[in-house]
Amino acid sequence: DVQRSLVLVKPDGVRRGLSGEVLRRIEAKGYTLAAVELRTATPEILAEHYAEHEGKPFYAPLVEFMLSGPVLAVVIEGERCVEGFRSLAGATDPTVAAPGTIRGDLGRDWGAAVQQNLVHGSDSPESAAREIGIWFSDLT
Ligand code: CMP
Question: What are the binding positions for ATP in this chain (predicted)?
């Protein structure tokens, strides 16, 4: 199945100059870029994007972190790219993420209240459709 997935290079990744490295890995894997936009999130966008995490202890620090600088919002496309990008990204905790993955190679624990783990990737085709609608309302 050719799928689309929403990828975000989070503020830590943009700040550290890793946007190009993340795009390079996506393209090297053979996925195509359907949309790429550098933008600053808003509380409204994040409330929708992270609706499932509302009420969790890391929710407020997560939103604050995601507002701390611009993010690179990316729509990727390819055969099974939702699962494929999750494997490229590695485990949520960058300390545990396997070497060879984006988080395993480039991330580490910064001791903050929230995992600054460089990237986000949709966790299912349904989430991808929902998230692409949030970040790129003109792209369906
Ligand atoms: P992401 O996959 O974008 O979606 C939710 C984010 O919340 C996750 O990446 C991490 O940045 C953060 N997160 C998830 N679980 C935890 C946790 N247990 N503690 C702190 N931050 C978390």
Answer: 10, 58, 86, 92, 103, 117
